[in-house]
């Protein structure tokens, strides 16, 4: 066995392995100023990013849970590795030959080490891939894929393979590669019986399941032959040191970057659905592996979405249109508050999953399925209410009471009042009556008592008259106003298309109107903020002016016209995003057959808005480095 890795080799690995690249495979990082990066911490659940990475010093630190260290520490904590294993793993990734104190070279041979298990899975995937392409027995697997619209290129893109029907084909192959039976059993590739080891997967089509870094950690296997001794249609790798089904998502290695770029994740139900979506151009699709979508899956997606800010992302779930699909939607809704992102559901009216939909109607139909998504809460409420006969008064009351419990369970109380109003319209009852029932349901759930006096005693439904201007959802609006108030001479033509409606907070909107009314100086003018404040009538809004005048910009370095333009472009991007959401909402309520002209007009408007959003995002990225 090799000895201790030489210090100079450890230093070389640390130098070559950029910490932002390594951590970026697990967490979506965004610029935080001064060369630092920031994202959601992978070590504890948080809604606002406190996880900071400093590439120049090769360190990370979370100000929320206080975890920190270098690139080796991160891998040790993230993947449960020892120090030597972390060094060896990065050395292999960056092509560095390690030397050990006793003069040996190469990685250590320990059957329990992650690197060996990954290597075994990688070798198995290559073996299965070759079998699918060349083995005569794999003809039925190739036909299966062809019948589902996947050609050889698609199979190779996803690394699909075929497990020979013989009981020890893979075992023999991997033994020749130097792997021990114990290693292969630990990796979940080989099972043991009374007569010794045998291939776990036999006569099946295989999908390699990869983690965020692209390493193969397990397989999903589909039955192909009627005489398969295992009755289950799908068989997955058992729990191993690498494969935890509650934490892995199929397709995440391919979807990781598209999810971060598009701020969207599409969760489908099967391997072929993921393939169909990607082949159709929906490259943000992922799927769970033989289990329901759970909290650990949500945490993975939140990190990739950088899910912590308004319009930062959206998660779209696809379900079958049958009763089982509706129950799945209800279960998902119960975990909806795991996301700050908007959650949606996409269901094909004919009950087709994405794979069957692509076969029947083509790639465009899959893209349209995702585009027609409905807010998850609306889908769940409609399905719940539609179980009752709303023509009968007693059934309307029962529907309202049943749905009220659902509304009361929402943890984001800022959404409750909107749900109350929507529910009242759906069941045709007075808003106050529905609001009272929701309050009663909330009190029953929490074990508390129901307030008996005015609405001011139900803050969870009403909320404050004016929201806190320091709330993170207004961060971009504040930043744009800070730049304008502190550096009006840099604004130029950038503000020509900005108006008060681009600000969602009433005080910030009032301040912008005041800046637009005050003549803009051509050079630095210390009196400018005071003159702007004098034009603001509301006392609260006036206090915002003084706060923004002294609060430093988040951007590092001296501000210039390009930065101010980027901040204002980001502001308009958010407005455009809101308009897109509004048009999409109207499209969802418009019948494309009965209202074809209006539907086409709105669709054209949507296309134009999407282009406008991309252009604005380009300006913002150029100046802010998003």
Write up what this structure looks like.
The radius of gyration is 28 Å and the shape is globular. The protein is of the alpha+beta class and 626 residues long. The chain contains 26 helices and 16 strands. The chain folds into 5 domains: 7-93, DNA Primase, Chain A (Alpha-Beta Complex), CATH 3.90.580.10; 114-236, DNA primase, catalytic core, N-terminal domain (DNA primase DNAg catalytic core, N-terminal domain, Alpha-Beta Complex); 252-380, Dna Topoisomerase Vi A Subunit, Chain: A, domain 2; 387-448; 475-624.
Q: What is the molecular shape?
A: globular
Radius of gyration: 28 Å
- Give me the side-by-side strand order of the main sheet: 1-2-3-4-5
Taking all residues together, what is the mean pLDDT?
82
State the assembly state of the protein chains. single chain
Short structural description:
The protein is an alpha+beta fold and 626 residues long.
What descriptive keywords fit this protein?
single chain; 626 residues; alpha+beta; DNA Primase, Chain A; DNA primase DNAg catalytic core, N-terminal domain; Dna Topoisomerase Vi A Subunit, Chain: A, domain 2; 5 domains; five-stranded mixed β-sheet; 26 helices; 11% strand; globular
Task: Describe how the helices and strands are arranged.
Elements: H1 7-16, H2 19-24, E1 30-33, E2 36-39, E3 51-54, E4 59-62, E5 68-69, H3 71-79, H4 83-93, H5 114-134, H6 139-147, H7 152-157, E6 161-163, H8 169-176, H9 181-186, E7 190-193, E8 196-199, E9 204-210, E10 216-223, E11 234-236, H10 252-262, E12 264-268, H11 271-280, E13 285-287, H12 295-305, E14 314-318, H13 323-334, E15 342-346, H14 354-361, H15 363-371, E16 374-375, H16 376-385, H17 393-408, H18 416-427, H19 431-446, H20 459-462, H21 475-486, H22 506-517, H23 528-534, H24 539-550, H25 561-588, H26 596-624
Parallel strand pairs: 12-13, 12-14, 14-15
Antiparallel strand pairs: 1-2, 2-3, 3-4, 4-5, 6-9, 7-8, 9-10, 10-11, 15-16
């Amino acid at each position: 066995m090799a000895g201790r890795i030489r210090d100079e080799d450890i230093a070389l690995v640390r130098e070559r392995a950029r910490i932002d690249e390594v951590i970026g495979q697990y967490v979506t990082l965004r610029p935080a100023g001064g060369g630092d990066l920031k994202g959601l911490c992978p070590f504890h659940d948080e809604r606002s990013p406190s996880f900071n990475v400093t590439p120049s010093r090769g360190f990370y630190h979370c100000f929320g849970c206080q975890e920190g260290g270098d690139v080796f520490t991160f891998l040790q904590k993230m993947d449960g590795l020892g120090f030597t294993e972390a060094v060896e793993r990065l050395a292999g990734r960056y092509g560095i030959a390690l030397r050990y104190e006793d003069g040996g070279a190469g990685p250590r041979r320990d059957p329990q080490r992650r690197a060996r298990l990954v290597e075994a899975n990688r070798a198995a995937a290559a073996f299965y891939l070759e079998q699918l392409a060349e083995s005569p027995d794999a003809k039925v697997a190739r036909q299966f894929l062809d019948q589902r619209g996947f050609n050889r290129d698609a199979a190779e893109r996803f690394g699909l393979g075929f497990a020979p029907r013989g009981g020890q084909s893979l075992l023999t192959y991997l033994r020749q590669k130097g792997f021990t039976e114990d290693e292969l059993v630990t990796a979940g590739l080989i099972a043991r019986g009374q007569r010794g080891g045998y291939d776990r997967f036999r006569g099946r089509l295989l999908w390699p399941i990869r983690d965020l870094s692209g390493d193969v950690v397990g397989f999903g296997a589909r039955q192909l032959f009627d005489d398969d001794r295992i009755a289950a249609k799908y068989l997955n790798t058992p729990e191993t040191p690498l494969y935890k089904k509650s934490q892995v998502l199929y397709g995440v290695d391919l979807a990781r970057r598209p999810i971060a770029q598009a701020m969207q994740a599409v969760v489908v139900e099967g391997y072929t659905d993921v393939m169909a979506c990607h082949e159709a151009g929906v490259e943000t699709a992922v799927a769970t592996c033989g289990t329901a979508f759970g909290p650990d899956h949500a945490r993975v997606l939140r990190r990739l979405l950088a899910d912590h800010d308004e319009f930062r992302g959206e998660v779209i779930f696809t379900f079958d249109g049958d009763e089982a699909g509706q129950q799945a939607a209800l279960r998902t809704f119960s975990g909806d508050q795991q996301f700050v992102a908007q959650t949606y559901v996409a269901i094909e009216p004919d009950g087709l999953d994405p794979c069957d939909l692509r076969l029947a109607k083509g790639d465009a139909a899959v893209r349209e399925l995702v585009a027609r998504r409905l807010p998850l809460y609306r889908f769940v409420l409609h399905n719940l209410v539609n179980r009752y006969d709303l023509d009968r008064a007693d059934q309307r009351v029962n529907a309202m009471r049943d749905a009220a419990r659902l509304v009361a369970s929402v943890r984001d109380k800022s959404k409750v009042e909107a749900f109350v109003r929507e529910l009242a319209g759906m069941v045709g009852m007075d808003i106050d009556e529905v609001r009272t029932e929701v309050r009663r349901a909330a009190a029953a759930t929490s074990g508390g008592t129901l307030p008996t006096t005015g609405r001011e005693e139900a803050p969870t439904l009403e909320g404050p008259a004016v929201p806190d201007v320091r709330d993170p959802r207004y961060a971009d609006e504040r930043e744009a106003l800070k730049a304008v108030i502190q550096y009006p001479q840099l604004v130029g033509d950038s503000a020509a298309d900005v108006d008060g409606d681009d600000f969602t907070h009433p005080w910030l909107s009032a301040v912008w109107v005041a800046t637009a009314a005050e003549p803009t100086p051509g050079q630095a003018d210390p009196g400018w903020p005071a003159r702007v404040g004098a034009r603001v009538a509301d006392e609260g809004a006036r206090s915002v002016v003084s706060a923004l005048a002294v609060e430093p910009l988040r951007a590092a370095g001296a501000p210039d016209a390009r930065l101010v333009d980027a901040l204002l472009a980001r502001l308009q991007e958010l407005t455009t995003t809101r308009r897109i959401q509004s048009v999409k909402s109207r499209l969802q309520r418009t019948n494309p057959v009965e209202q074809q002209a209006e539907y086409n007009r709105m669709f054209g408007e949507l296309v134009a808005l999407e282009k406008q959003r991309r252009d604005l995002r380009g300006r913002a990225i150029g100046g802010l480095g998003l």
